[in-house]
Design a protein that fits this description.
The complex is a heterodimer.
Chain A (H helix, E strand, L loop, with lengths): L6 H20 L2 H18 L6 H19 L2 H6 L13 H15 L2 H12 L4 H8 L3 H21 L3
Chain B lengths: L3 H10 L6 H9 L1 H53 L14 H4 L3 H5 L15 E7 H12 L2 E4 L8 E6 L5 H8 L7 E4 L2 E4 L1
Parallel strand pairs in B: 2-5
Antiparallel strand pairs in B: 1-3, 4-5
Classes of the chains: A mainly alpha, B alpha+beta.
Chain lengths: 160, 193
């Protein structure tokens, strides 16, 4: 695959996506911005010709983000809700997003799905989700644990 | 006895309150670790989503703000255009029939923002849209045909920007940098495999 687009063009086109990807890996928007920024500066400083700038940037940012993630200890990973093992970081996060959406839609009961959408996708607290859905916070809690069990089984059987 | 469920709840809701022993326990218990891994995957995937939602919400806010600003601007322009020419501010000028019923001419002088006459010069940003949607747009805009050899790839979601002055060849070359599929162009037919 050849691409004669220069690295700066690739960066301007992909910047938002790269930050999003880095944030999913390191769990912090500020760190993700720093990672993307440092990668692009390093590449520009090196000044070496790159045949496929978009793929190159993608890989460089992912590697940098994984390097940052590696430096975090288990406590920091748990506190930022990050994977504990490297094999849990997929090479293509967009695919993970699609797989998770598909699993949430196809595997969860409607009541559980509504809770997952409210808590994970909308970022609501349990209390807010409970209020919006007209259920108790303990039911929200129960549905989340149910969702995790169902999704775990699904991911395991689909090797995700 | 260690309560697994309780530790999982803590890991999800108040991870900072987990003791070192409890963290060790999460790491050593395969079921608990598996549930936490699922939780982390859900978090990672929804972090990608949240950006998209935030971006759309932000755009919606701008759109609403722009609409309000547009209405305010039009109303102001209308008021200015129907107001009789007055050189004093102390005197109340009773509205005349002419002034309350603006003529088409008076409306015509309002500075209405001009649209770009050539909309094909405008680019487009695809934020978490499928390859299928992107290809539809390209085939309409550049009037080219599509040959899809692997339909599965059409569901791949991606961030992609097309600027107004980009050539079709250039767009295809940029799309070809994505690793998940191969795309090429020959005689105005885009082939995806």
């Amino acid at each position: 695959m050849n691409n004669d687009t220069d690295i700066e063009t690739a960066y301007s086109v992909q910047r938002v996506r790269l930050i999003r990807m880095a944030e999913a890996i390191v769990g912090s928007h500020a760190d993700a911005e720093d990672i993307v920024q440092s990668v692009i500066l390093r590449i520009i400083e090196q000044g070496e010709p790159i045949s496929a700038p978009m793929s190159y940037l993608n890989t460089a940012v992912r590697n940098e983000a994984v390097g940052h993630w590696r430096k975090l200890n288990a406590r920091q990973r748990i506190e930022q809700s990050l994977p504990l093992n490297e094999e849990d970081i997929p090479a293509d996060l967009d695919r993970l997003s699609i797989a998770v959406d598909k699993a949430v839609e196809s595997q969860l009961a409607p009541a559980v799905r509504r809770v997952v959408r409210s808590v994970f996708y909308s970022g609501n607290s349990y209390i807010k989700a409970a209020g919006e859905l007209g259920i108790s916070p303990s039911t929200v809690n129960k549905h989340i644990v149910t969702a995790l069990r169902v999704l775990r089984k699904y991911f395991k059987s689909h090797e995700l | 006895m260690i309560d697994r469920e309780k530790i999982l709840q803590k890991a999800i809701h108040s991870p900072a309150s987990l003791s070192d022993d409890e963290i060790e326990y999460v790491l050593s218990d395969s079921e608990l670790e598996g549930l936490y891994r699922t939780y982390a995957a859900l978090k990672m995937a929804t972090r990608l989503k949240k950006h998209e939602t935030a971006h759309k919400t932000g755009l919606r806010k701008y759109a609403v703000a722009a609409s309000i600003a547009g209405v305010v601007f039009l109303v102001s322009a209308l008021i200015i255009s129907i107001r009789p020419h007055s050189h004093g501010i102390t005197k109340y000028d009773a509205p005349t029939k002419e002034s309350v019923a603006p003529t088409p001419d008076s409306l015509a002088v309002m500075p209405v923002p001009q649209e770009n006459p050539d909309s094909t010069l405008q680019g487009r940003t695809f934020n978490n849209e499928t390859l299928g949607e992107i290809l539809d747009y390209i085939s309409n805009k550049y009037r080219c045909s599509l040959k899809i050899e692997d339909r599965d790839v059409l569901g791949i979601r991606m961030y992609f920007e097309i600027s107004g002055n980009q050539s079709l060849d250039e767009i295809v070359r940029q799309l070809d940098t994505f690793e998940s599929f191969d795309i090429s162009i020959d005689s105005h037919t885009i082939t995806v495999r």
